[in-house]
Amino acid sequence: MSFLSLKTQAQISPENKLGTWYMFNATHKLSNSVKLITNAHVRYFELASEYQQEIYRLGLNYTFNKTVNLTLGTVYSITDSSYKENLPDLYEYRFYQDININDKWAGFLLKHRVRLAQRFRRQNFENKTTHRIRYGLFLRYPISKKLTTYAFNEIFIKFATKSFGQNRTGFGFIQKLSKQLKLKLGYMHTLFSNTKSHRVQLGIILNTNHIKQK
Asked: Is residue 179 in a domain?
């Protein structure tokens, strides 16, 4: 029976599936130093089926100078952690704090991001609080005035007995359509402690400016 159970689990594993993240990321400039950040993502285990997660993010960003800025925000998400199985969804509220450090090197635009997160999770009527830290290195290189390529690597560390959470590596392109609107197309590989995933990232990036012009 144990052998049959393990074989069934392997057959329905999403590890070798190419999933998709559909993303809407918006930044609204409220003053020279303050920005409102809003994100909405819908994620699938496969290209257009097998729902995995929806996540909503709201943050307030303060820019100290051209190099350093800080974001404080909150997240709400609903996650179906199973794949083609009927298991309870995971509901999560989260607070996060970002420190972003921008730099330039040989034509590349670099960003270091350190993110602290406090996670309040509820699944099957059980509550759990966890904490983690993420470090990401993000690179961009402008190919032309309207096309930019990017790459990144980000590691997740949990404040728990098993500290390693995941490692994300990705690359792609950003196409500028106007001053306010961009399109994003990329690929991301995620390595977990026991598995891995492959994701196509399709996104819309919106930037608005609400500073009154004199």
From this structure: yes
Question: Is 3 within the bounds of a domain?
Answer: no
Look at residue 11 and tell me if it is in a domain: no
Q: By CB neighbour count within 10 A (0-12 exposed, 13-18 middle, 19+ buried), where does 52 fall?
A: buried
CA dihedral 123, 126, 127, 132 (to 10 degrees): -60
Q: Which helix (H) or strand (E) holds 11?
A: helix 2-11
In a domain, 12, yes or no: no
Q: Say what the pTM is.
A: 0.89
**Are the C-beta atoms of 90 and 64 separated by less than 8 Å?**
no
Residue 49: CA atoms inside 13 Å, Cβ hemisphere, count?
Answer: 2
**CA-to-CA distance for 43 and 8, rounded, in angstroms?**
24
Find residue 19's DSSP bridge partners.
199
Residue ranges of E strands in 12-159: 18-29, 34-44, 51-63, 68-79, 90-105, 108-123, 126-142, 147-158
**What's the rounded Cα separation, in Å, for the pair 164 and 156?**
6
The domain that contains 84 carries what CATH number? Answer: 2.40.160
Domain count along the chain? 1
Token pair 């032309």 is found at: 144
Question: What are the 10-residue block averages of pLDDT along the chain, 214 residues in total?
Answer: 40 80 97 97 92 97 97 97 85 98 93 98 92 97 96 95 93 97 98 94 96 74
Encode pLDDT of 82-138 as tens digits: 887 888 899 999 999 999 999 998 889 999 999 999 999 999 889 999 999 999 999
Range of the domain at 154: 17-209
